């Protein structure tokens, strides 16, 4: 069972208390953007087998959105962090590097 | 261990009642291998990545319909060991949209005589599939689907609760929370033996001279000037003129090697079977509102399918709470299963697209084709998918796959089957 710690209320909650919100740090292309950009935003996904960054919501708790970094192959959780950032913070990336050297996700590593 | 298997003939014998009788008189020493285990050649006309149902069916129809027999099917693990061996074996074609109805009905109709075509008993059992309507909205939705199916030439009808009870007496139709208000009934839907479908196709492919190479992982896709020229594998480089990627849950991974992106997310879908009991249910029942579907296998096990995990993963296991939700819902509709013990549970990695319809398409890399995105419902489509994919790869165009191109996402030309797919697909 997947257990994530909500960075806002500090509760370690299992997946039944949470709602998965899909891939994190998407660029939200809007009206006036090109077809390719809009397709990219709406449909194209990283879908990695390994390190992944996602949005989650603590629905049956504080109700707040947050980010999580985890491994899609092993379900290992590397850390959770605030929703108010455009990319993963340094400490989360360092925690991933410590466990998965040479990881890559979009242009991050 | 003997150094070679005694009296193993290289050519394959035809399966028949006479063959069974003949072998009965000679201690079953004359059966030949169902498919070969060759070393990869340097070059093939076509390489298919993935020896699951869809990959093998593609290879089979390339040979049978288009005369392309210099084909290799590469498989990372073992033949049919992915989702082909992990589904709940349901076959139906009662979809809403025309392109879906066309390809799923093609598949269902090919299943009808697949055993004869392959000379391999795939145990297709057109026992009938019913999708329960348990809310007013579902009644409207399924009536609409029945009307659409009538126009598409797919035989389905909307039936009354009394008929549901008659067809499936073990069902509690007055259910406490979700009474059965009717059902969408497809009498020629049913089940088939999932492994036999992969094995039957593999045997015929091998007979046509194709190479099925197991334990051969593709680690890279080689291209020159935007054109595919071959693959790098754990057993060396292999060249090809055309490449077909048919790897379901791992499509994103292979697409990454080939240098393009896909609108796909991979999640675990799980299923479970009970201990075997005497025959009590001779139809397939799906209940989308309560997220569960059930049929009885020939061995007597109740085969139960549940929901997908809510988040991306590649664990082939699935979340425990989904089992609880599925079983809780089914116990309500089938009170008699409440005392059954569950024997096995497993998961498969399904590749889900934004509109819940598959992708059978050319790709940005020339001569590289992809067949993926079947999500939670690929097994039923295997023959139709292989038929269309083979035509697409051989001739560059197939009426069956035309609407399922990758470009539909940028053009907004979706084939929305999220309702037809629901949980049970």
Description:
- The complex is a heterodimer of chains A (109) and B (425).
- Chain A has 109 residues and is of the alpha+beta class.
- Chain A has one domain (3-25, 44-99): Folate-binding fold (2-Layer Sandwich).
- Chain A contains two helices and six strands; from the N terminus they run βββαβββα.
- Chain A has helices at 35-42, 90-99, and strands at 3-5, 12-14, 19-23, 51-57, 65-71, 77-82.
- In chain A, the strands form two sheets. Chain A has a four-stranded antiparallel β-sheet with strand order 3-4-5-6. A two-stranded antiparallel ribbon of chain A has the order 1-2.
- In chain A, a hairpin with a 7-residue loop joins strand 4 and strand 5.
- With 425 residues, chain B is an alpha/beta fold.
- Chain B has a domain at 127-188 and 265-353: D-Amino Acid Oxidase, subunit A, domain 2 (D-Amino Acid Oxidase, Chain A, domain 2), CATH 3.30.9.
- Helix content of chain B is 29%, strand content 24%.
- Chain B has twelve helices and 18 strands.
- In chain B, strands 1, 2, 8, 9, 10, 11, 17 and 18 form an eight-stranded mixed β-sheet that branches. Chain B has an eight-stranded mixed β-sheet with strand order 5-6-4-13-14-15-12-16.
- In chain B, strand 10 (227-233) and strand 11 (236-245) form a beta hairpin.
- The radius of gyration of chain B is 22 Å and the shape is globular.
- Chain A binds chain B through residues 1-2, 15-16, 19-20, 22-23, 35-36, 38-39, 42-49, 52, 54, 72-75, and chain B through 250, 252-253, 261-266, 310-315, 319-321, 353-354, 409-411.
- Chain A: This is Sarcosine oxidase, delta subunit family.
- Chain A: InterPro entries: SoxD (IPR006279), SoxD_sf (IPR038561).
- Chain A: Pfam families: SoxD.
- Chain A: One of its GO terms (molecular function) is sarcosine oxidase activity.
- Chain B: Its EC number is 1.5.3.24.
- Chain B: It is an enzyme of class 1 (oxidoreductase).
